[in-house]
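SEQUENCE-TO-STRUCTURE ENTRY
===========================
What this section holds: a protein sequence and its matching fold, both as plain text.
Question of interest: how does this chain fold, as expressed in backbone structure tokens?
***
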Amino acid sequence: MFRYFVSAALLVGAATSANASDEPRLFSAEDVFELEWADDPQISPDGKQAVYLRRSNDIMKDRTVSHVWLVDMDGAGHEPLLADSGSYRSPRWSPDGTRIAYMQSALGRTGVYVHYLASGRTALLGTFKESPGNLTWSPNGEMLAFSMAVAAEGERLVSAPKPPEGAKWAKKPRVIDRARYRTNGAGFVDLAYDHVFVMPAEGGTARQLTTGDFNHGGSLSFTPDGQQILFSANRQDGWELQSREADVFSVSVATGELRQLTTAPGVEASPKVSPDGRLIAYLGTSNAREPFLPTNVFAMDRSGRNVRNLTDGLDRRTGNLQWLSSREIAYTFQNRGENNIGVVTTSGNRRVAVEGIGGTTIGRPYVSGTYDAGEGGELVYTKGGATRPADLFSYKSGRTRQLTSLNEDLLAHRDLGEVRSFTYSSSLDGLEIDGWIITPPGYQEGETYPLIIEIHGGPHLAYGPHFSAELQRMAAAGYVVIYDNHRGSIGYGSEFANLLKYKYSSPDDFADHMSAVDWAIANGFADGENLFIAGGSAGGIAAAYAVGLTNRFNAAVAAKPVINWVSKVLTADSYIGQIANQFPGPPWEHLEHYWERSPLSLVGNVETPTMLITGENDYRTPISETEQFYQALQLREVPSVMVRIPDTNHGIASRPSLLNAKTDYTLAWFEKYRTDKEQEE
């Protein structure tokens, strides 16, 4: 059913509340601050209730905040638990269901709290300068485990004199002598290693269990007797230069004694002990030098013996292991633009329990979603749709129930673009590819519209039929928007994902994108004289590469792109794994290959007006990449703009105002080069 078209000019001065009339209006930048979505649900031990994070965008703080809400699994009750001016994370039920542990950060420190449900009182157990993670209850409810960074001391090369009292000397030099010294988000990191801690659940001193110059962490799992905690770590010599190596260990809660349980090449991670304590399930990935590798669900005896691959042949990336019983394990896996919950028995029989969880990424339509499994086999999970972010759903004994409706007060009164799926063949080799098209509100069959193709990042990620604030705003501005899961996307098997091996970017993925554009033109959706291309990260690379191969686009926006692979891999935080698994070798041995993959190698062909958008603190695709392309385009007198986002890393849309700014600048650039508007005038 198609809706009445409203001019994009009506967006100016739009109110934030739903229109009282029956006439819905367009989705706007102001509406981004009104969105809510569910995340991180946790079922109570008796299976009757669930807590979850109710996320929203605070217009005054310009931040996404998270409150804790409580909902009955039959949908009868829904009430706030921790919903004041603070923001909370990781709510976790105690084993007896009487308490909920959680964390809250303020003033540069993170507190671990326990909320008592019967009395409504809350206890602060401790505050930490370094933020704890992986909060986990012991089986008897007397202890909480978590992982946390612990500062270490490096070698001191000099002993500098102390400044006199009151003197104002320059900052001390920063001395770096390790391979992993900077990360996107955290920036330059002090020398520290993640370790496993325990502390009494009624308050007391946190006690460190692991030692050594290694990182220990990820999800933690107690054995049923509470005497051991399982985790994953790489404690091999030279671990810093290994991107795909980790083993499962156990540590004694009483003594700190370590025991290594797996030794296979590759990554063994996320160990979970079965309810009866007999088996350990974990995720396993090989260390083969491939851009994409599937992750499988494994099980072994508590001793580490009798290892078996329970999902052999699934050929997908699995995650979020949880025991449904001592005989069944739940997990997530992506398939054709959707995230599903699968169940596998300890003998290897698989089934799909829930299809299409997701809705927890608000900006672009990435595959996402979280869930929790109860001891009675029930599931609670997030699920959205093409026109709604995530709500909370439950599943038990084949019955599905929707527990929340967080956005009906807003989105039921908005005229949203209609999302349709389509399948097309790549002009390169006939490869079948999934795509989605969003038609603008008021779309009229038989009329053509300016088109935006928006390309996902990764490249080993995937889009799907999920709500996207950015793309809905593009549709509201009168564009047909298309996006695709081109070769290299995940959810289609290893062969499909690795079709971009040593070809990222290349004419191969370019052909996939252009074939989607041609499909939209041939099927009467798109105006072939008003074509636009955009993408972020890997999508930004694809957009920058595309304008070096074609002049068909009126304008392009490349967000946080890689422009020169030679400089990128030696300045970004991902260099260790990227050089090892994405390229045939280091750049000084394969300079021609790196150059061929670089959009800068094609800049002499570019005539398309191009905007570049990057965070100034981006260490994943450093802004020096953007600067190279911008300056090259300026030298060639190609219309170009560089938009620099201050104090922002690779997540340039991580704050609501910046999500809007990214979309605003993109639409303003495209509006400047639309020819259909000139004809109307």
Observations:
- Confidence is low (pLDDT under 50) at residues 1-20.
- The first helix runs from residue 29 to 32.
